[in-house]
Amino acid sequence: MAEAAALRTQTEEEDIYLAPQWKLVWWRFKKHRLAVVAAVLLSFFFLIALFPNFLSIHDPKITHGKDSLVGPQRINGLWRFDPFVYDLKTVRNEETFALDHTPDKDTKFPVKFFISGQEYKLLWLFKTDIHLMGIETEDGRPFYPLGTDRLGRDIWSRIVHAIRISLSIGMVGMLISLILGVVLGGVSGYAGGWLDVLIQRLIEFIISIPTLPLWIMLAALVPSSWGIVQVYFAITTIIALLGWTGMARVVRGRFLSLREEEFITAARLAGAREGRIIFRHMLPSFISHIIASVTLSVPAVIIAETALSFLGVGLRPPAISLGVMLVEAQNVRSIALTPWVLVPGLIVIIIILSFNFIGDGLRDAADPYGGRG
Amino acid sequence: MLQFAIRRLLIIIPLLFLISATSFAILQAPPGDYVTSYLARVSMQQGFPVTKEEENALRRQYGLDQPIYMQYLKWLGKVLRGDFGLSTAREAPVNQLVKDRLLMTVSLSFVTILFVWTLAIPIGVVSAVKQYSILDYIATFAAYIGVGTPNFLLALAIMWVVLDLGGGYIGGLFSPEYMNAPWSWARVLDVLKHIWIPAIILGTDGMAGLTRIVRANMLDELHKPYVLTALAKGLPIWRVILKYPMRTALNPFFSGIGYALPQLFSGATILGVVLGLPIIGPLLLEATLEEDMLLAGSLLFILAGLTLIGTLVSDLILAWADPRIRIEG
Question: Residue B144 falls within a domain, yes or no?
């Protein structure tokens, strides 16, 4: 027994010595349980972002004037594998004159899955009309699992589309800051000298001004005649222009410490070209740090976009992002009556927390040769 | 110390210059200038077009015919003397619009920092000393939520919960009866009654981060031999902690304050909109949306200037607290 155990630990140890770096990183990452949960959660959100049309029930832009501010409709009978929703009864409240929507328990509509509805293109390629769920009624009565907003648009369908936009802004913004950060940070750390001083002063300047006021003013300079796509890229660029400094600092710090390492000196003495030293010797040893700080920079971009759109200077309707949806929640009194307009905010928080957890896990795992358990 | 202070002041000057140039560039950016919008309004009111000569005369009067760098220098000269000019849309001097809001912005930041410090340091220390205790887990969890939740969403959620529980509206900094009253003791007390809510919400972000920093630094220090020595000599544990490792652990914490201020002002801007606070941020948003770029640019300059001054002050405090910084600079 004891021999077997000893043998096992020995092979385990051998495994550790033989494992390539990414495997060590993965082993360390797996230990961070919250990060793993967050990674699973986030992959769901990315799936949603890939198939918003399939998941949505209605066209997210269509308004159902009569169904303004309907509360989330409960799906009953899920545990009997016979899901159904009650019909909506709309009556005018005699005191407030507002429309009250109550479930009409006499009429049930079964919730059907993989139901055909509006036509769309799956992954921009395949024409289809299959949606995940929906109900079939003669008068085309809609179904709102998360309720509707002021204009009677289905919040569920809007959220799945908003997740695509918000996540993609996070990714695109991250990509722009990554390029800026790696290039400027790399130049700063590798070249040194006056270039380094210049770039460092620039970074100090950027982090010493409050970003949101500057973002607001830059975003306001985006012409109102621009289309959705142009505004999307303009806003993302504006956010990234002030967001690359953290990345540049990480890259510069890594370059500075690596420059003094023996294996770099050895490579240089062996006659390796600069490009080879950077890409073949330096890059692999700090790529995991970059991935970690990249992950941590995505939520910052998402928060920035949400904040700007919420304030009315970011994306503009008819574009749908989580921030644009939150404009509905600007009036506190309306939140008290219709709390479901806050759901996009909850989604933002979940996405941001997930990125943060994953980033933390990656940061701990980034240096698998380090001492910390 | 004096030498250090002078050196820090000298670093600030080019930064102020850059910030003023940025602000000026932004307030110049939209097409047309003050005269264009003014004349458009005048000819609309009079129903009579303004001639080219009259337009040029007006331009000359306002100095708008000069090259852009001259306009910038003139603007800068006025701004440095504390004169921000007239807001076109509001037809009031910028100074008058800003005065009270500036005071409120500074007060809110001050109260927030006070709140963050008085809580973050003890929580960080305790959760390091009692690592993996229930309190540590709660603090860690709260810190994650605090960092992950954007302030304005937190504010919205809190307002909703308070309204739902029948607590009424929690925004603003004044009760209605003090809204336009002149300053008095009663009014100051009224502000104090309101300011703690936005301060706590605004502080969650920074507090979460600072607690983590203090905790990590303390953990690094606690396992050093000098702590063991002090304990072995029989000093009571809390005295050891407060006297040695905590002082060292707080150092990197002080140096982070400079970076905390810009974040604080950013956060206050959007929180001010949500909670309806009479501070600079919301006015900046309004001015931007109304395309009153002179006001917006001035406000940006004021906010950035405030940040720089705050950073300078925190640097000086830090240098006073830690001699090593004075020397290394």
Answer: yes
Same domain, B63 and B140: no
Q: Domain boundary residue among B69, B91, B113?
A: B91
Q: What is the pLDDT of residues A70-87, one digit of tens each?
A: 778 777 777 777 777 777
**Residue A208's closest chain B neighbor by CA?**
B262
CB B270 within 8 A of CB B152: yes
A198 vs B: CB within 8 A: no
Side-chain-facing half-sphere of B25: CA atoms under 13 Å: 8
Q: Say whether A208 and B148 touch across the interface (CB within 8 A).
A: no
Q: Determine the Cα–Cα distance for residues B134 and B120; give it in Å rounded to an integer.
A: 17
Tokens of A206: 């950027």
Alpha carbons B4 and B293: distance in angstroms, whole number: 37
The Cα–Cα gap between B295 and B30 comes to 13
Domain boundary (B91, B123, B158) is at B91
Residues of chain A with pLDDT under 50: 1, 371-373
Interchain CB distance below 8 Å, A335 and B30? no
What contacts B325, CB < 8 A, 6 or more positions away?
Answer: B4, B255, B318, B319
Nearest to B289 among A201, A220, A349 (CB): A220
Which residue of B144, B156, B281 is in closest CB contact with A213?
Answer: B281
Considering only CB atoms, which chain B residues are within 8 Å of A326?
A: 153
Q: Are A205 and A145 in contact (CB under 8 A)?
A: no
Residue among A259, A220, A65, A315 nearest B30 (CA): A220
Dist. CA A197–CA A189, nearest whole Å = 10
Residue A203, CA distances (Å) to A184, A237, A243, B147 in order: 10, 17, 10, 23
Q: How far apart are CA B71 and CA B78, in angstroms?
A: 11
The answer to whether residues A202 and A196 touch, using CB atoms and an 8 Å cutoff, is: no
Q: Give the residue numbers spanning the domain of B246.
A: 94-321
Say yes or no: A265 and A203 in one domain.
Answer: yes
| Cβ pair A313:B291 closer than 8 A | no
Indicate the residue of B160, B284, B289 with minimum beta-carbon distance to A332.
B160
Which run of H or E residues covers position B281? helix B280-289
- Chain-chain contact of B284 with A204 (C-beta, under 8 angstroms): no
Q: Residue A191's CB: how many other CB atoms inside 10 A? A: 12
| A35, part of any domain | no
pTM: 0.84
Shortest CA gap B126–chain A (Å): 22
Please answer whether residues A101 and A144 qualify as being in contact, where contact means their C-beta atoms are separated by less than 8 angstroms: no
Q: What's the average model confidence in pLDDT over B216-222?
A: 84
Structure tokens at A88: 């909506």
CATH of the domain at A260: 1.10.3720.10
pLDDT tens, position by position, B46-62: 767 677 777 777 777 76
How much is the pLDDT for A170? 92
Chain A, residues 216-275, CB within 8 A of chain B, namely 216-218, 220-221
ipTM score: 0.81
| CB-CB under 8 Å, A336 with B160 | yes
Same domain for A137 and A172, yes or no, is: no
Q: Are B299 and B305 in contact (CB under 8 A)?
A: no
